[in-house]
Amino acid sequence: MEDEFQLIAKLLQHRPPINEEVEVDVGDDAAVYRPSKEMSQVITCDTMVEGVHFIEQTMDPVDTGWKGIASNVSDIIAMGGIPKHAVISLAVPQDWTEKKLIRLYQGLGEATQHYGVTILGGDTVRSMKGLMVSITLVGEVEQGTSLRRSSARPGDILFVTGFIGASAAGLHILLREDAKEWRARFPSLIQAHQRPCPQIEAGRLIHRLGERAAANDVSDGLGREAREIAEASGVRLVIDRDQVPLSKDTVTYGAECGVDPFQWAFDGGEDYQLLATCPAQEWKDFQGCALAKGMTFTQIGWVEDGEAGVDCIIEGHRSPLTYTGYNHFA
Ligand SMILES: Nc1ncnc2c1ncn2[C@@H]1O[C@H](COP(=O)(O)OP(=O)(O)O)[C@@H](O)[C@H]1O
Ligand SMILES: Cc1ncc(C[n+]2csc(CCOP(=O)(O)OP(=O)(O)O)c2C)c(N)n1
Ligand SMILES: [Mg+2]
Ligand SMILES: [Mg+2]
Ligand SMILES: [Mg+2]
């Protein structure tokens, strides 16, 4: 590799074109974009670190690029927003060749194209060990209407979008020494881990409920995300564990390898689905509306008055949730 400036020029060939909202593109000290009228700006930042979020065995660089954007898009969606512009910070170790970095950018390019996000800049520096990709994503939401973790109220329905736990099941396969044969049998689990696909439409549909809905994206496992909503709202969430939607492959693989698949759902993380609440009287229509748009929203519990926290019903027996979720410093 010659120098970082030539590298940046090569990498940028793999980003989708910018649009008319961009006043100053890559190439100056900072980028300038024009926010839409009547919209508030939403800003988030998520990082992928080699050895923590991915290793060579689990992710091709193209997947790491995709997932870096997806994890940020997921947070904008969980606020009810629409993702718009990204800046990308790279710390590159010696063993990451230009070829691998171009693959990373192809993944970033695919995901930004898919979600209508423009890459407006970034930063490129040396890392002494391991690649780090840190992405800051700006989105927008109608003023004063973002979805908060603090909006859950007693009597609400607690629900999730899609399936939960498939990403952690996929990671379990990818970390096996005999991964090859399992990968071929359970491609949906591998896909869930490597290519999560947060759905903007799901967030925007929940956003229609306005301040009566609370939402969190599932990055650290249901156990962790549920606690965050309970604490922010000052309510007790009750989850009926057997209602948590697990994909058929998640259940089959769990049975074959002797792992409780609910552990993947509650402790695993990286599903990038939404955990949300909805007023009970709206639930049936709301769920029907999601279905009509090709999305599955599944009730997994409800919200009660009481000490802030989460209870879980397992085979008819209710007790405080013991699953903890993912913890970086455990
Ligand atoms: N180093 C930091 N400095 C300031 N705020 C932070 C930092 N790390 C996380 N946060 C904030 O703490 C909150 C929780 O972060 P995090 O658990 O990463 O959220 P999420 O799981 O939705 O990505 C977010 O509002 C985030 O912006
Ligand atoms: C090699 C490897 N080991 C473990 C994991 C699991 N893992 C790493 S970070 C993480 C939690 C999600 O990442 P985080 O940075 O906490 O995202 P955020 O909650 O901020 O969106 C999980 C489940 C993984 N993806 N890859
Ligand atoms: Mg985060
Ligand atoms: Mg989040
Ligand atoms: Mg996290």
Describe, in plain words, how this protein is organized in 3D:
The protein has 330 residues and is of the alpha+beta class. It folds into two domains: 139 residues, 60s Ribosomal Protein L30, Chain: A (2-Layer Sandwich), CATH 3.30.1330; 172 residues, PurM-like C-terminal domain (Phosphoribosyl-aminoimidazole Synthetase, Chain A, domain 2). 36% of the residues lie in helices and 25% in strands. The protein has eleven helices and 13 strands. The strands form three sheets. Strands 8-10-7-11-9-12-13 form a seven-stranded mixed β-sheet. The protein has a four-stranded mixed β-sheet with strand order 3-6-4-5, covered by helices on one side. A two-stranded antiparallel sheet has the order 1-2. Strand 1 and strand 2 form a beta hairpin. The radius of gyration is 20 Å and the shape is globular. The model has no long low-confidence stretch (mean pLDDT 97). Thiamine diphosphate (TPP) binds next to loops.
Overall mean pLDDT: 97
| Strand neighbour order, sheet with most strands | 8-10-7-11-9-12-13
The description of the largest β-sheet is: 7 strands, mixed
Here the CATH topology of the largest domain equals Phosphoribosyl-aminoimidazole Synthetase, Chain A, domain 2
Bound molecules: adenosine-5'-diphosphate, thiamine diphosphate, magnesium ion
Count of DSSP H/I helices: 11
Order of helices and strands: HEEEHEHEEEHHHHEHEHHEHEEE
Give Rg in angstroms: 20 Å
Tell me the strand percentage band. Answer: 25-35%
Percentage of helical residues?
A: 25-40%
GO molecular function: ATP binding; magnesium ion binding; thiamine-phosphate kinase activity
Binding site for Mg(2+) 2: 46, 75
Domain PurM-like N-terminal: 27-141
Catalytic activity: thiamine phosphate + ATP = thiamine diphosphate + ADP
